[in-house]
Amino acid sequence: MTTLGVTGGIGSGKTTVCGFLAEQGARVFYADLEAKRLMTEHEGLRADIVDAFGEESYSDDGSLNRKHLADVVFQSPERVEQINALVHPRVHEAFAAAADRAEEEGVEVLVHEAALIFESGGDKHLDAVAVVVAPDEDRIARVVERDDTTEDEVRARMSHQLSQEELRRRADYVVENDGTLDDLRRKSVDLYHSVAGA
User: Fold this and answer.
1) Angle, in degrees to the nearest 10, between helices 43-53 and 66-73
2) 3-state class (DSSP) for residue 40
3) Burial 110-135 (b: 16+ CB within 10 A, else e)
4) What CATH class is the domain 2-196?
């Protein structure tokens, strides 16, 4: 079994690439979804988040108060590092368990989709990492529409991530999302066959 990280800046199209990889037979572990699940369901992590960011981190119904956390966390790089240090180790544990299951079940390619693979050290546990890159104006337009947010807010989030130049430098594979959806599908299929045959 090959483990492949798929990452890229916000709005780059990495989730779409993962969908195309899944069509080819890859199993996809979505780190952000897993992180949200753990932040809600993992008692130890919940307690750590409340200690660090206050009782307002959770709504009365027990769900994550994402607005409060975003407002607090994105105030400074130190706060971003603080929440990442709490969440990332738990996500890595969950991925290791997912990899064991996939291996037992004969999965050929297991994809770890995450925005912060390099920042979290996740690349050390993977066979290869593919980076999805796209023109900044396309990325901003996608996120503004998807998240009902502003260009300034998107740029602020982009500033907390590695630059696309740095991502390219660290990548084993680069997927250029600069054409049509069919172009992106074709590139994703090529990526799958490159990795599965490795």
Assistant:
1) 50
2) helix
3) bbbbbbbbbbbebbeebebbbbbbbe
4) alpha beta
Which tens digits make up the pLDDT trace of 15-67? 999 999 999 999 999 999 999 999 999 999 999 999 999 999 999 998 999 88
> What is the arrangement of strands in the sheet containing 173-176, beginning at the earlier edge strand?
27-30, 109-113, 2-7, 128-133, 173-176
- Token pair 């980076």 is found at 131
Alpha helix segments (H runs only) across 105-161: 136-147, 151-159
Residues in the chain, total: 198
Helix (H) or strand (E) holding 109: strand 109-113
Residue type, 185: R
- Check residue 113 and give its pLDDT: 96
Close Cβ partners of 12 (under 8 Å, ≥ 6 residues apart): 132, 133, 134, 139, 164, 177
Tokens of 107: 């999965």
Query: pTM for the complete prediction?
Result: 0.87
Domain map of the chain by residue range?
2-196
Helix boundaries (H) for the chain: 14-23, 31-41, 43-53, 66-73, 77-104, 136-147, 151-159, 164-170, 181-196
Taking the C-alpha atoms of residue 112 and residue 163, their distance in angstroms, rounded to an integer, is: 20
